[in-house]
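Intended use. Records like the one below are meant for learning the mapping from a protein sequence to its folded structure. Do not use them to infer anything beyond what is encoded.
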Amino acid sequence: MKKIVYLVVGLFILSSFTTLGIGEASKKQGDLRFSFSTPTILEKDSYVQLRSEGTDSWVFDAGSPMVPRRIETLTLPFGTVVQSVVCSVQGVQTKVLTQKVEPAPTPMIIGTEEIQLPTMNEAIYNAEGLFPNDWVSYNLGGGLDDNNRHVTILTINTYPIRYEPTTDTIYYAENIDVTVTYKLPTDNPFPAKTDYELVIIAPSKFSSALQPLIDHKISKGISTMLKTTEEIYDEFSTGYDKPEQIKLFIKSAVETYNTTYVLLVGGLNSWWNGVARDNQNEGTKDWYVPVRYSNCMPSAGDDPGFISDLYYADLYNETGVFQTWDTNSNHIYGQNIDKKDTYPDVALGRLPCRNVKEVKAVVDKIVHYETTPAGDWFNKFVGVSGDGFMDIMTPIGIYWNTNSLPNGEYTIYAQAKNINNVYGPVDETTITLDKTKATSLTFNHDDHLTTGLNYPFPPVAEIVSVSPGDILGNTDYSYVPTEREAYCNDFSGWANIQYSSGTLKINGKAYDPRPYGVDTSIHVWVNNSAGTKVFEQTKTGFGMYWEGEWCVGDQELLGRSGGGYYMPSSFEKTYLFTSSGEWTNMKQVLSTFSAGCGFMFFSGHGNPGVWVDQYPGIPGNRKNAEVEGLVWFQLGLPLFPMDSLTNEYKNPVVAVGGCHNSQFNVSFLATFKDRTNAAQMQTYGYPVAECWSERLVRLEKTGAIASMGNTGFGYGLLGEYCTA
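Structure written out for the chain above:
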C-alpha cells in the first residue's frame, strides 16, 4: 500500500536526526567528537576555495568567507532548556593563503534577469580577528522528529577552519569536542492517548464530500475527525484574525487529541474572480480555508508577502511557547524581525479545492491510492530539467592587438574542447580591419544555430562580441548587451563588446552541452585573407553547470547530489534532460507522465500557470533556448494540456522547482487584469484560473496525488554550488 502525501506548501523537511542520551537527572550533558582532515586549498581566478573532509557544507551567508562547516542536528525531549554548548579544540595549525577566501554567493531568484557576482562583505573581510568568531555555533527550535514526536531540535555547526581576513591566514583543527549541557522538562503538554491522529479542517459545505475520506482513514486505523471552519470561528474567537483562529484550534487539537496530521481542504471559492488577499496578512473573504501571507522578504525585489501554510504547522518555539509569527505585536505577520523557528509541529498539507466536485475527485484519488496495491509503475522516478542560468563566472576575455597588422579581411576562429579531448565545431567570424573608417561592431548571439538545438552535442565555442562584416576601425567602441540579449551578462560581463586603442576583446562562451558536462577550454586564432595565422591563444577552465539537471539527477557535486541519487535502488530512473535530447517539447513530458510513476521532480522556471526550462548553455539567449515543459493553458490543442494526461490512478508525488508554480491564490479575471503585476499575480496578463500544482492534484483520476512547490519566488545558487 502507498501512504498519501498531501499538497504541502512551504513545509521544511528535516532528516538525519541524532538523539542525545537522556536519563532521569534534571541536568544532563551530551558529548560529541568531530575529526577533520588537513584542508584542501583550490586556487581560483580571484579567490581560494577551502575544503575539509569531515564537513558537509560551507557557510553560505552571502558575502561571508566560505569556510567549511559540519552540521549536526540533535533532538532532545520537547521543552528541554539548553544551557550551554561549548567546545574544546585539538591539533590547531595555521597556513597563510595566497588569495582571499571565496565569498559566499547570493541566492538568485530563479528566472531573474538581475544576477549578482559573489561580493565580499567588507565589514567581515576588513575586520580584525577570526571568522567565524568561534569553532562552534548552534540554534534551537521546536518541531517533529523522524517519528513525528515533538522534540526540541538543536543544530550544531562546527567550523574546522577559521579565517583571519586581514592576514589571509587560516587556523584549522584536527578534532573538535562539543559538550552540550541541558535541563530536561518537568512535564509533557501532550496527552498520552491519541483521540484523533488526523484532523481535517474544511467548510461545512464540503462535509458530505469528505465523509468517504474520513471513513477510509478510520478503516485504516487512523482516528480522524472533521472540524468545520464555522465551528472554529465560533470557538476560537480570541484569535486576532481568522488564520490565527485556525492556528489556535490546531494547537488545541495537538494538546487535546494528540493530533499528528492536519489536512486543510479549501482554497479560493471561485476560479473566475477570487479576491486573493484581504490585506497584507491574510486571504479570508473569498477563501473556504483562509491563508496567511508571510511578510518575510529574503531579498529586495522579492514577493511583498507570499502564502505560507507553514504558519499553521509552526506551533511552538524552542521552549514550547506558542509561535505567533508576530513577536513584536504589530499585527504584521512573518516579518524578517519576527522570531520563528520554521520547524513544523504537525504534518500539514492543503487540498485547495474550490468546489464540491473537486473535493470528490481528490478524495476518490486518495482512497484509491491507499487501497490499491502499487504496480510496477510506482517504482519509477522521473526527473525533468535543463539549464537554469548562464553561469559564466569568467569571460573568455582574449585580447587581439591589431595595431601591427595591415588593413584587410581577417577571420576569427574559435573551437572548444572538453575534458575528454572531444572537439566541437569551429565558430568563424570574418571582419574587416580598416583604420581609415569608423569602427562598427555588433552583438552576435546565435549558438542556437550552431547546435540546431539537437542534443547531445559536442563542445560549443561562441564568439558574441563581433559579427560577420564588422569593421575594426580608427575609433574606440564599447557596448554592454542587455539581459534580453545576453542572459546573466550583468553577472560577469561575459558578452561585453570592447575595442580600444586597436585592441579587440574577444568575448563569448565555451561549454560542453552533454549531461553533466562542465569544463571546457577554448582555442581562438585569427587568419588573414591569405590563410596565414596572425594570432592565437588558448584559455582553459571554463565551467558551466546545467543547474536543474544536477538538482534532479544522480551525480555527486561537491559532496551533494540531486534528487535521483537519493531514491531507493529499486526505483527505475528516467531523466528528461534538454542536454540529452530526451526533452525538447511538452509532448515528451505528457507522454512520460501518462505512463505513470511514483515520483516526479521538475526543476526549472515557472509562474502560476507555466513550467519551462532551457537548453544547455542558453543558446541564442532565453527566447531561443526555452523549452516548454507543462502549462495550464495554451493557444492550441489541447487547450488544457494537463487534461490530456492518461495516467489513471498511476499518480505521482510531484516536486516542482520553479517560481510561483504552487501560488494557489490566482483566478481567471484577477490574472488577466494584472498586466503590470501590481496585484502580484505573477502572470502579467496571462489568464490562469488555478495554479499549476493545484490543477495537477485536483484532476479526476489522472495528474498527481500530491505536489510540493513554491508559492513565491524560488531561489537557487549558480554553478558548482547549485546542489548545496
